User: Which sequence fits this backbone?
């Protein structure tokens, strides 16, 4: 009978990173943290190190022609993960610059081995390993000697009873010929991209032996709290998570809070559906969203709203919404930061949903959301939005989105961006001219898998909210200039 050897997974202490790694770092693994200058490699290494170490599991941190330890710690101590009590108690810093400058690779290797033997660490970090390679090339040393040193160091690190990390500045093409990439058990690749004056940092798990990692590029930020990773929403097997729940939730309907609207939707909006409300500026999209949230609160269903077109003060100028937020019944996502990502917004939404135990979500509006996104996300807005909505509805959330739609009066569109296929239901609001006045009208364009009204109805916005009026067909005589002909009673 075969028995598998269990490998303990270590929690990194970096929010979101363990999810990318497939549950954490394999104990005794040999890992490479690589990327371009300034992308956060050293900060990531320190955040993991301070989280992992304790008096029984110590760490050695070697600096090789990189920043002196004193200068490095001066900046790292600004982060809350930094613990001064762990310095010299559980963490030892060793500077190898002098050994390397004397030009003896073998001496550097011996020094590292001796320090590891004497200190018996559970974790070993070498920063910046890339400096060793560059130093060798500057001194015109033999390429064979340099490659041998790299291989020997890597092999030694894999043989130690420690979890080890090499940190270095690498360009992607160089990785293809470097021996260290071959023997590494795990490779974390960090990058930062500047596009149209917007900066976005990405992390990719290129390799992690023995466990399934999350593929692709994922957003991360370096804030005053350190590094936080925002795993990308991934639809498994190309199928949205909510696809298996539509039929089971169709009979459960969510009241909208506007008299008459539930009937037009065929009994309310099915639970777990996404609804897109589109229309020109001032037609009442946000008011409809507010009524949706207020109805949820009346039924014991807290809500969350992410507003992208209005500042928090403008948003809370809506008295009804303000009272719901003040009472702690509706949570508001702060979207004022620049260069947003879909991943980060989804992360904030999910955190707020769990905190509020929310059942309803409002995104107001998609137009403002696209403008707030970093360029690389706005370029693939449809695909990113698809993953986001699939994730939310897969959690059982009922989602209402609004979107600005230019009213051209001469044609009829159901959504901007060509994304009418995304939501399960669509309501279109319009302005129409009747007897020399602009009137508001709306219609239910679709409710997936459900019967719904085909009428175009007028509506007004009053102090009590939205009031739905008569179908537009009642005004046929006014619109044509001829009285409507009704069948004779006989």
Assistant:
């Amino acid at each position: 009978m075969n028995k598998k050897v269990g490998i303990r997974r270590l929690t990194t202490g970096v929010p979101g990173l363990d999810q990318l790694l497939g549950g954490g770092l394999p104990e005794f693994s040999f890992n490479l943290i690589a990327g371009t200058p300034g992308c956060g490699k050293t900060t990531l290494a320190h955040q993991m190190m301070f989280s992992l170490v304790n008096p029984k599991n110590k760490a050695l941190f070697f600096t090789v022609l990189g920043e002196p330890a004193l200068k490095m710690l001066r900046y790292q101590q600004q982060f809350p993960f930094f613990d001064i009590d762990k310095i010299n108690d559980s963490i030892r810093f060793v500077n190898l610059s002098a050994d390397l400058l004397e030009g003896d690779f073998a001496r550097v290797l011996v020094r590292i081995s001796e320090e590891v033997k004497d200190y018996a660490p559970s974790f070993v970090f070498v920063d910046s390993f890339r400096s060793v390679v560059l130093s060798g090339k500057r001194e015109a040393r033999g390429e064979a000697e340099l490659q041998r040193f790299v291989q020997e160091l890597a092999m030694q690190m894999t043989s130690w009873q420690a979890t080890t990390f090499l940190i270095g500045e690498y360009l992607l093409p160089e990785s293809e010929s470097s021996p260290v990439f071959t023997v590494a058990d795990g490779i974390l690749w960090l990058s930062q991209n500047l596009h149209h004056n917007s900066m976005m940092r990405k992390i990719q798990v290129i390799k992690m032996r023995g466990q399934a990692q999350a593929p692709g590029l994922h957003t991360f930020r370096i804030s005053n709290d350190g590094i936080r990773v925002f795993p990308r929403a991934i639809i498994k097997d190309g199928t949205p998570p909510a696809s298996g729940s539509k039929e089971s939730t169709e009979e459960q309907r969510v009241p909208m809070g506007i008299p008459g609207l539930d009937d037009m939707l065929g009994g309310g909006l099915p639970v777990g559906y996404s609804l897109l409300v589109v229309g020109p500026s001032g037609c009442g999209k946000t008011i409809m969203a507010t009524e949706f949230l207020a109805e949820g609160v009346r039924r014991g269903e807290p809500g969350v709203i992410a507003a992208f077109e209005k500042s928090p003060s403008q948003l809370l100028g809506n008295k009804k919404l303000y009272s719901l937020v003040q009472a702690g019944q509706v949570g508001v996502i702060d979207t004022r930061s620049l260069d947003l990502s879909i991943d980060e917004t989804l992360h904030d939404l999910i955190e707020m949903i769990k905190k509020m135990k929310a059942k309803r979500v409002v995104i107001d509006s998609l137009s403002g959301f696209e403008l707030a996104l970093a360029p690389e996300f706005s370029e693939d807005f449809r695909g990113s939005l698809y993953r986001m909505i699939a994730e939310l509805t897969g959690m059982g959330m009922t989602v209402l989105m609004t979107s600005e739609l230019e009213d051209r009066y001469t044609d009829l569109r159901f959504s901007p961006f060509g994304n009418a296929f995304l939501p399960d239901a669509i309501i279109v609001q319009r302005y129409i001219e009747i007897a020399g006045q602009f009137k508001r009208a709306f219609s239910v364009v679709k409710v997936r898998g459900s019967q719904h009204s085909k009428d175009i109805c007028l509506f007004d916005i009053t102090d009590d909210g939205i009031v739905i009026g008569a179908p537009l067909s009642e005004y046929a005589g006014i619109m044509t200039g001829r009285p409507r002909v009704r069948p004779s009673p006989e």
